[in-house]
Amino acid sequence: MAWLITGGAGYIGAHVVRAMTEAGERTVVYDDLSTGIAERVPPGVPLEVGSTLDRARLDRALAGHGITGVVHLAAKKQVGESVDRPLHYYRENVEGLRVLLEAVTAAGVPSFVLSSSAAVYGMPDVDLVTEDTPCAPMSPYGETKLAGEWLVRATGRATGLSTASLRYFNVAGAASPELADTGVSNLVPMVFERLTEGASPRVFGDDYPTPDGTCVRDYIHVVDLAEAHVAAARALETSPGRDLTLNIGRGEGVSVREMIDRINAITGHDRPPTVTPRRPGDPARVVASADRVATELGWKARYDVQDMITSAWEGWVRLHPEAARH
What is the pTM (predicted TM-score) of this model? Predict the structure, then answer.
């Protein structure tokens, strides 16, 4: 098999490329480098620079490398930005996917893995979110992910394309410092940034109906997430015609306050958080049921929250040496 990894120069994508390569799969990265970093692509892995909106370039990449499977991670992913720029998000995330699927089906590629998100669920009122929990996304970002799942599933049914949609929960950690998350839109790097500035971490609301009043989330190590992609890719290879929709999480909730306390302890800081008003649309609790992925793929998360924070901090300090002095 030869797998095209769209967005393979990004934070998650680079981990997927590494995991797929280490598993013996041949990989090719396709990335427009708008947020991806070319240096993340391992030596020997071809890098095709282009947009998923560029059909001609996609056709050349698929044919030129003899691609037999696609893992599609390329997308815009900032919830707040999606509210401000919905047309941009629908163009990049939905139209880009439509163009890619046209190219994939025209080339006769048999397998397709989609990067989806727990954002499709919105504000679920359940202790554990299963794949059958009703989807009610609360942002254009979440809407584009759900629309993407529909588009992938419909294409599979119409053409015989084998598909898997993986709904990521809260991703953190790094396989090695050079692959660390360079953004500050997720909780762990947001806290790191505040600590590096000598400021207190922020908690957005402490009056939720949870044990300590702060939001509860399911955190998944990016290495575990990458290995789930390998498992999904191989499931599609060995069982053509499959249509999978799977949560990728640990099934364990951790509150924002608990995460900040752990980050303080692991990084050697002692900065209690400052409570600020709630952010619109933040659900109180979103924790995955990981039963179906265990049954379908034989996959289970191996790393815990301490592993996530420790590995992420090593990468943060590499990028921000001043952090070690605070």
Answer: 0.96
